[in-house]
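Supplementary Methods S3. Complex input for the zinc ion-bound model.
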Amino acid sequence: MSEKTNKADLFFNGRWVKEIRNPEEFVKKFREKRRQGLISHHINIAWFPEYGEVRINSDGGRVRRPLIVVENGKPKLTPEILQKVREGKLGWYELVRRGIIEYLDAEEEENALVAMRAEELTKEHTHLEIDPIVMLGNSAALAPYPEYNRGDRVNYGSKMVGQAIGLVADNFPVRTDTKFNILAYPQVPLVQTSMSRIINEYPVGQNIVIAILCWEGWNLNDAIVMSKSAVERGLFRSFYFRTYETLKKRYWGGQEDEIMIPEVGVKGYRGEAAYVNLDEDGIISPEIRVESDSVLIGKVSPLRFLIGEEFTAELENKREASVCVRHGERGVVDTVLITETLDAEQLIKVRVRDMRIPEIGDKFASRHGQKGVISLLVKQEDMPFTADGVVPDIIFNPHAIPSRMTVGHLLEMLAGKVGALSGQLVDGSAFTGMKEEEIRKLMKKLGFRDDGKQVLYDGATGKMYPALIFTGISYYLKLDHMVTDKIHARSRGPVTLLTKQPTEGRAKRGGLRLGEMEQQCMVGHNAALVLKERFDSDLTAIPVCTKCGLLAIHEAAKNKTYCDVCKDSQIAWVQTSYAFKLFLDELKAMGIYPKLVVKEV
Ligand SMILES: [Zn+2]
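Predicted complex, serialized as structure tokens:
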């Protein structure tokens, strides 16, 4: 069990197998055999002297990563082998099979000493990192110069890349996903990383000119000022697609749905005007503008309780079941698709497209966790400009930099400026990208200050700004959080059946909740009576028996109110929220007697 006895417990996938001798020797031989290809490279082994345990794992779901094997301080990936890889004579899996590269799981990593670079290798090292960038995940490796940023910002930045609108697929014109966004003019980033080179075919943003200055206070608190003229030229324009679909179902008893313009008399008929856009077949045509709740596919279904009974074609037995544009959305009908399912049922899909031009409230971000919303769109002639006549697309507030320490953002702006001026892509890969000194040298060569600062002129007055302004080019992302999808208000509207309180959520035309904290605010502002108004959304009057304290019965038809328990007793009408009445019912359902003691005040 212990090191002294030189024995250890052997575990396989967490189960004890047996006791073994010379564990260290055992593990060493096991690894040798794996590198020779005698044991599958999917199996990992780890030796824990502190527990006296050897653990072998082969089960699924382990996170593993590839490393170059090092023996006696020399990496097994020699320049000769590397040359063969370059010539295409050796593939990745051949390297794995030959034991030059091996995958380690979290447990085997505990036995390894990994060098970051080949120069750091000593006799103690067991492995060498393929490239330092692999310590980052796929999306974190997309950000340039992440090693100059604070760790959490790299994380935020990679999360925002995931929310960015870009080119998701080449076949998007024929796709019928429920919803997706496409950026109109996607660009490859000027400052590349070794990871972004791989996904360059599917870019997610645009390279834009940024000036870092406060502009009349409009960009305070992470807001951004954007050039209206650039937006009109197509900057960050995107398209939003949503596909609606319906099935022409057949029911038991020979009844079936009908795709048609519903006739007057059908239950839930929307009125003639609602169906004007439909063709004779009851389906809308491409390129017709549709607004919120417009009918796309006219459909009539048999009433549900009639299923199985005798077939009747009368209008009263039919129900309006048209497919409409979601509440709060709009656009132009893009594609209409009529096909059949495997069960030979007619399937109709209508795709609606909506052009999204950046507007106040839309969200944008760089790849460094610096996000913000547009607060103002400014005409080009009012924006600041350089001596060359360059006008920034975005004015970014300098206060966003010091507290977040995203130095990588500043470096990207400088590197982007070099790239744009010299017409080349700059490498900004983590740890191996173009260094600051190199960027500065190139900036000087191009005739600019090496610190990125420039003289800017006020667009309104034409006067030179007294301070130099840091300007550069950075890759920006349009995030999938647009105001049109979020804007919402309500005066009256639907309520839920159970509680009679307003529905929740924008899609259901819900109310805006005045919660506990808001209620405390009202009290704190000496406005407690406002609450009496605000909390009457489900106001009801309930008849209460003054004798037994239970709810009485009110027969509206006979205008009679009486207690079913006491028969002849005094009834009092009490105003309360419907939710409270529901609560009383629930107590009674549990066998609890909720007695209300009512008194005239
Ligand atoms: Zn009673």
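The mean pLDDT is 93. The longest helix spans residues 407-422.
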